[in-house]
Write a structure and sequence with these properties.
The chain contains 17 helices and twelve strands. The protein has 449 residues and is α/β, with parallel strands linked by helices. It binds glutamic acid. The site of glutamic acid has 10 residues, from strand 3 and helix 15.
Length: 449
C-alpha cells in the first residue's frame, strides 16, 4: 500500500520521476520526505511561493567522471565516480564517498538528498552532498586501493575545499581511503588543508570518536526513544545487521548501556551468538584481518553461521539495521513486530523499505529513521572541521559528550516537531519536517539562487 501525496506535492513528485528516470532509490527518498510535507505547506505558504521543494529536489551541481587505474598485474580498469553537490544553504556540501559495485547516480542522489535533511537536523553549519564510485574494493590490495584513490582525487580535487565541499567515508571508504585521498589532495594543491576531508587519522587532523560516532550516535538516539516511553536498554536483546564501522560501534555502545547483541551479519550471511557477540573477536576479524563474518564461528564455540540467512527472523526486543539501503522489507518488519520488537533505529541510510516503515509505525514500534538516528557520524565530522579550523584536538570524552548532546537534541527536535504537527511519536514526520524547515527558511532568506 502506498500512502497518497498531498495534491500540491503529487505534481512535484511526478516531475522528479520524469526528470530522473530509472533512479529508483532517489525516487524513494524524495517520496518519503514529500509524504511528510503536506501540513508544512499549509502552514507556511512561502515555501510553495518560492518553489522551495522543487529547488531542494534538484541538486545544485552533479559531477560525473572517469577513474582509470591499474591493478597489481598491470591491467587497466575504468570506473565511474560521482559527486553530487546537493544543497549548500546551511554550509559547505558535506557527506561521504561510497565505493561499492552497486553505486550509480540514483544511489548517490538518494544519499545526497537524505544528507541535506540529516545535516540540517544536526544543528551544525553543513550543507548536503554525497559521492562515490562503482569501484569494488573487495579483494583489492592496499596498493590498488591507493592507485584508485589517487586517480579519483586527481579529478575530484578541483571541486573540493574546506568552505566548498568536504567529503568523508561511507560504505567501502574508511580511514585508509581517506588517507590516500587526503595525501593526493595535499600533493596536487600544495596545501595542508585539514578541513577538506573528514574521517582522517588521529595523527593527521582526525577527530577522536569519529570512527565510533555513527554507531554510538544511533544507540544514543535509541536510548532517547526508549526513555520517552519510560523504557531503557538494560537487559534488552538486540540484533544489529552489518559488521562494518556502524554496526561494530553500535554493538559496543549497546553493551556499555546494558543491552545484549546476539546477532550481526554481512552480505553473505548471519552470525548468531546467544551468549552475546564477542566484540573483540569481531573487531579483529573485520578491522584488522578485513575478512568475512563467517570466520567468527570457527573461533567462537556455541555460535552459528547461516549462509544467506535473514537476521530479522531472529526474535529480539530491538533491531538496528546498520548495513545498507532496503535491507529490511515489509515481510521482515511483520516478523519483527510478531516477535515483540519494540524499537528500531536505523544506523544505515534508508535501510527499511517504505512498507516496512509503515508497518512499524502502525504497530507503535519506536522507529528512528536514519536521517535522525545515524546523524552522529556526520555530526562528528562537523566537530572534526571545528577542531581543524581552530587547529585544536579534543579528548575522546569531550568529543563523545558533544556527540551525545547533539543526538539528544536531534531526538528532542524530532519528537517536538512530530507533536507540533499532530503526529506524536512519529519520528519520520518529525525528522523530515524539522530538517526541511531549517533548510527551507535559509533558502527563502538567501533569495533565488
Ligand atoms: N557517510 C556518513 C553519512 O551517511 C557520514 C558523512 C560525513 O561524515 O560527512 O552520514
Amino acid at each position: 500500500m502506498v500512502a497518497g501525496l498531498d495534491e500540491k506535492l503529487e505534481p512535484i513528485y511526478q516531475d522528479v520521476l520524469r526528470r530522473n528516470p530509472g533512479e529508483t532509490e532517489f525516487h524513494q527518498a524524495v517520496r518519503e520526505v514529500l509524504e511528510s510535507l503536506g501540513p508544512v505547506l499549509v502552514r507556511y505558504p512561502e515555501f510553495a511561493e518560492h518553489k522551495i521543494i522543487q529547488r531542494i529536489c534538484e541538486p545544485e551541481r552533479q559531477i560525473i567522471f572517469r577513474v582509470p587505474w591499474q591493478d597489481d598485474q598491470g591491467h587497466t580498469h575504468i570506473n565511474r565516480a560521482f559527486r553530487v553537490e546537493f544543497n549548500s544553504a546551511l554550509g559547505p556540501y558535506k557527506g561521504g564517498m561510497r565505493f561499492h559495485p552497486s553505486v550509480y547516480l540514483g544511489i548517490i542522489k538518494f544519499l545526497g538528498f537524505e544528507q541535506i535533511f540529516k545535516n540540517a537536523l544536526t544543528g551544525l553549519p553543513i550543507g548536503g552532498g554525497k559521492g562515490g564510485s562503482d569501484f569494488d574494493p573487495k579483494g583489492r590490495s592496499d596498493a590498488e586501493i591507493m592507485r584508485f584513490c589517487q586517480s579519483l582525487m586527481t579529478e575530484l580535487y578541483r571541486y573540493l575545499g574546506e568552505h566548498t565541499d568536504v567529503p568523508a567515508g561511507d560504505i567501502g571508504v574508511g580511514q585508509r581511503e581517506i588517507g590516500y585521498l587526503f595525501g593526493q589532495y595535499k600533493r596536487i594543491t600544495n596545501r595542508y588543508e585539514s578541513g577538506v576531508l573528514t574521517g582522517k587519522g588521529l595523527d593527521w587532523g582526525g577527530s577522536r570518536a569519529r570512527t565510533e560516532a555513527t554507531g554510538y550516535g544511533t544507540v544514543f538516539f535509541l536510548e532517547e526513544m526508549l526513555k520517552a516511553r519510560s523504557k531503557s536498554l538494560v537487559g534488552k536483546t538486540c540484533v544489529v545487521s552489518g559488521s562494518g564501522n556502524v554496526a561494530i560501534y553500535a554493538i559496543e555502545k549497546i553493551r556499555e548501556l546494558g543491552g545484549k547483541v546476539i546477532a550481526c551479519s554481512d552480505s553473505n550471511g548471519v552470525i548468531l551468538d546467544e551468549k552475546g557477540i564477542d566484540l573483540e573477536l569481531l573487531k579483529e576479524i573485520k578491522e584488522i584481518e578485513r575478512r568475512r563474518v563467517k570466520v567468527y564461528v570457527e573461533r567462537r564455540p556455541g555460535s552459528t553461521y547461516v549462509e544467506d540467512g535473514v537476521i530479522w527472523d531472529i526474535p529480539c526486543d530491538v533491531a538496528l539495521p546498520c548495513a545498507t539501503q532496503n535491507e529490511l522489507t515489509g515481510k521482515d518488519a511483520r516478523t519483527l513486530v510478531a516477535n515483540g520488537c519494540i524499537a528500531v533505529a536505523e544506523g544505515a541510510n534508508m535501510p527499511t523499505t517504505p512498507e516496512g516503515v509503515r508497518i512499524f509505525l502502525d504497530a507503535g514500534v519506536a522507529f528512528g529513521p536514519g536521517k535522525a538516528a545515524n546523524a552522529g557520524g556526520v555530526s562528528t565530522s562537523a566537530l572534526e572541521m571545528q577542531q581543524n579550523a581552530s587547529r585544536d584536538s579534543w579528548s575522546f570524552e569531550h568529543t563523545e559528550e558533544r556527540l551525545r548532546e547533539i543526538m539528544v537534541n536531534i531526538h528532542r527536535t524530532c519528537y517536538e516537531t512530530a507533536d507540533e504537527f499532530g503526529q506524536p511519536g512519529n519520528y519520520v514526520v518529525g525528522a523530515n519536517t524539522a530538517g526541511f524547515l531549517k533548510v527551507g527558511r535559509a533558502m527563502v532568506a538567501m533569495g533565488l539562487i
